[in-house]
Design goal:
12 helices; seven-stranded mixed sheet; Chemotaxis Receptor Methyltransferase Cher, domain 1; 287 residues; three-stranded antiparallel sheet; 2 domains; 44% helix; alpha/beta; Rossmann fold
Length: 287
């Protein structure tokens, strides 16, 4: 941990980020992640990254941009940067209509397609603190027709710190407020004021660091039946979003399913993915 910044450094950092530095930082973040910060989000970046200036005893945000570009330990700093620029608010059983479509329609369709192998592979992209992939594992553990099936759940995120939190599997009562009581009793153990998820459920989820804008690494993910990529694409511009959607589609098996957030949509993808209404949710299926 770096020592406190000097008075001069503090005064400089208080002046905020000038327009040119903001432009350079926005471009750098976009090049690395595809995440877009709008013109009116300069203060947001300033507030989120102020701690990094203090950590490295840097006087200005321009110094921080140079640190990200040229310092020997820049790769380590990127881990911190990614954790600060991404939003990780989530909870178990979020957006229930989509989960209803998943368990009532998508899973039976995949079971029919995979009845010979009796295997289902699911990818929770941008999994944040693990609430989503653990929710899927809980739901599938409670689905009787899947007894003796092999279920693989891959959960990925760009932020290493949030993945460590997800791997620990400890959550507040607020995060678990929508978990069905019988599953909460069966698969969570009180740990002070929080709750730790059971080893049975934890063992069904594999966590991995993955930047959705890293095309070469995304090509390592293949043979997936169902992808959840919810409340993530809203952070990308149309160009980046289209690239990510194409690469996710590449990870899917033919007729595999992609589920995105309620507030998100995909355009210019009709030659790769077709949308269909299932209950109250829109789901995309690979052509």
């Amino acid at each position: 941990m770096g020592s406190p910044v000097t008075k001069a450094e503090a005064e400089n950092s208080k002046r905020g980020m000038d327009a040119e530095t903001f432009k350079l930082l926005r471009e750098f973040i976009y090049e690395q992640t595809g995440i877009t910060f709008q013109e009116n989000q300069k203060y947001l970046l300033e507030s989120r990254l102020a701690s990094r200036l203090k950590e490295h005893k840097l006087a200005t945000y321009a110094d921080y941009v140079n640190y990200l570009r040229f310092d020997t330990y820049r790769d380590r700093e990127l881990v911190s940067l990614y954790g600060l620029i991404t939003t990780n608010e989530t909870y178990f059983y979020r957006d229930q209509p989509q989960l209803d479509s998943f368990i009532k329609t998508v899973i039976p369709a995949v079971m029919e397609a995979n009845k010979a192998s009796r295997q289902i592979r699911i990818w929770s992209a941008a999994c944040s603190s693990g609430d989503e992939p653990y929710t899927l594992a809980l739901m599938l553990s409670d689905y009787a027709p899947l007894v003796n099936w092999n279920i693989e759940i891959l959960a990925t995120d760009i932020s290493e710190p949030i993945l460590k939190m997800a791997s620990a599997g400890v959550y507040t009562a607020h995060a678990l407020r929508h978990v069905p009581p019988h599953l909460k009793t069966r698969h969570f153990n009180a740990q002070g004021e929080n709750f730790a998820i059971s080893s049975t459920i934890k063992s069904r989820v594999k966590f991995m660091n993955l930047n959705l804008y890293d095309r070469p690494r995304l090509k390592l993910v293949r043979g997936i039946d169902i992808v959840f990529c919810r409340n993530c694409l809203i952070y990308f511009d149309e160009k980046a979003k289209h690239q990510i959607a194409i690469d996710i589609a590449g990870a899917l098996k033919p007729n595999g399913y992609l589920i995105i957030g309620f507030s998100e949509s995909l355009t210019k993808m009709s030659d790769v993915l077709r949308s269909q209404h299932i209950g109250r949710a829109v789901v995309y299926q690979k052509i």
